[in-house]
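Example record

The entry below shows one chain as it appears in the dataset: sequence first, then structure tokens.
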Amino acid sequence: MKKDFSRREFLQRSAGATGAYVAARTMILDPEKIPLPSSAVPPSDRVRFGIIGVGMQGSGLLSNAIQLPGVECVAAADLYDGRHTLAKEIAGAKIATTRRYQELLDNKEIDCIVAAVPDHWHKKVVVDAVSAGKDIYCEKPMSHSAADGVAMVAAAQKTGRIVQIGSQRVSSVICTKAKELLASGIIGTLTLVEGSLGRNDPTGAWEYPPPPDASPATIDWDAWQGDVPKREFDAKIFARWRCWKEYGTGVAGDLLVHLVSGMNYMLGWNEAPKRAMALGGILRFPDGRNMPDVQATLFDYGRAPVYLRLNLGCETPEIYRFQGSKGILEVTETTISYFPQSGEDESPSYYTVSYPRAMREAYLKQWHAEHDPKPGKEPVAEGFTYRGVSWDEEKPHLWKFFQGVKNRQLVTEDAVFGHNAALACHMANESYFRRAAVTWDAASGQIKS
């Protein structure tokens, strides 16, 4: 006869669980209410913008922005001539195009700027824009380095211009509802935050096909490089700049920043991590890049541990799991699911298998007398699921920016919020390259080992 048994077997034999779990309810979240594009807006109330960078991301921003009521594009700037053609195809032949973005800043007809340029250009474009009196929507990550971010925040605060960073999930109904649920204490004491995202294809790892006509004749290569040490024209670098730290910020700046921005928004945090420790490597795409294609980072915010992982070598869902003493809130691109837990002993302690029989039987009798509910009075732990439109919808985020420009109202993802999210990414990269944990020293504005 078997004399010992597992914890699971003990719980099954002991019975007496105090609750039951029922199927989750599903509720639908209404999308952000934005007036229809056909809504008549008098010319005096329209917001006129110029766009800097009409590449993969910029073309999408342009397409979405011009569909918003009362918003129109006046001009587009890009260092690749093919994108002048693309901009006119999207916004109409009437818009002006140029290689020099400064022309947009000098244009009095332009109220604000939308910028989607390589990371190493973010600081200059943002500082130039606000200094010229233009509000600006700048793609994520806000900065290419911690020092750049400090300078950008200072410029925004000095000029008083509106700066919104483009991590659009902070304007999504999914993250707004999750924020409400977390603030209500639904998961009890927060004990751990997990987030992950995985891709498994060359395009997802930025191995984009360069434009067939890319050349020094069609691209102002010298200007595109900016202050980075000059090198011979390379169409692959032009198209795949995220792969190199000289121009981009790797998976941290492209993907981790979304996870961090969404997490900070949902938890109501707006600060840099106190400490970060990252591991990773170039494991799937050894194509000459110098940024990792796999990166996992632990963050210390002085609260619950945060573990965020990115993998360009294996596809996995993009997901958050906020874990606490009362259960788990799981958030994905289109869903929020709550899995409740009581946090209490729901069966007798399996430690009592170490008691002599008489002592154990006395314990079990007393436990059941104190904990077993009366028939028909068993508590029910009820989970639920919300469903809504994708947290990657750009229109709500752009709409909030243009409304801010028009009405001078605050935006959610301002320069300070964007800077703090970007700092987490810079700390992850610095930890990876230094092979050591790093901290953020706000007094000196530096990341230190």
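Notes for this example: Residues 1-8, 10-20 have pLDDT under 50 and may be disordered. The chain has 13 helices and 17 strands.
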